[in-house]
Amino acid sequence: MKSLEGKVALVTGGSSGIGRAAALVFAREGAKVVIADVLVEGSRETVSMIQRSGGQAVALETDVTRAEQVEAMVKGAVAAYGRLDCAFNNAGVGGARAPTAEHTEEDWDRIIRVNLKGVWLCMKYEIPQMLEQGGGVIVNTASVAGLVGFNGTPAYVASKHGVVGLTKAAALEYAQSGIRVNAVCPGVIHTPMIDRTVSKLPHMAEVYRKMHPMGRLGEPEEIAEAVVWLSSDAASFVTGHAMAVDGGLTVQ
User: Fold this and answer.
1) Quick check: 224 and 21 in contact, CB under 8 A?
2) Could you confirm whether 208 is annotated as catalytic?
């Protein structure tokens, strides 16, 4: 028996990286998957990958910073498959590196808007649907930067700490309503975002590797497995948890 047989899973930021990997694992475990992203072509490719493996999926163009689009995303998922059981709020951005006093207001606003407001908007519209149907599971993408600080990324660190706090607040609010809310906190993961950084700054490949006691970067599939476990009944007594999947980075 697949762990999510008959369930419906929504993945934001599902056009590549962790989001795509999670969508594929959700489908592997029997869920019907809704891919939401501003990057339409990437989302369609994720859908095609799922369909080629015998799964069911649809793509919805969605900007998670816009309330009307997020509301339409949830309605679209329900229109496609009748309900919403699992939501992986994963869409996020990085940003320019600069100390706190040198960070631009424009970059600060963009990062907070996508990484934190976007997660809140998703939950704002996912939770009422889950309450109406009697329950559901939400997993938010935070980061090790939501657990510890890092130099030169003040907005990103603030946004991810905010995601962890938001996750805990929502978990308490809906703990007796059949809705579990958790966060996953990846270390440095081998994604297109990291590839772009390394292409500009080749020395960062070794810096990233040395950050992790395991001596390597994580793979998107390793985060995906954690997300799908948190979304399954195997994690039925887990809520409000910020799960580090980081090769030991945060225990140093």
Assistant:
1) yes
2) no
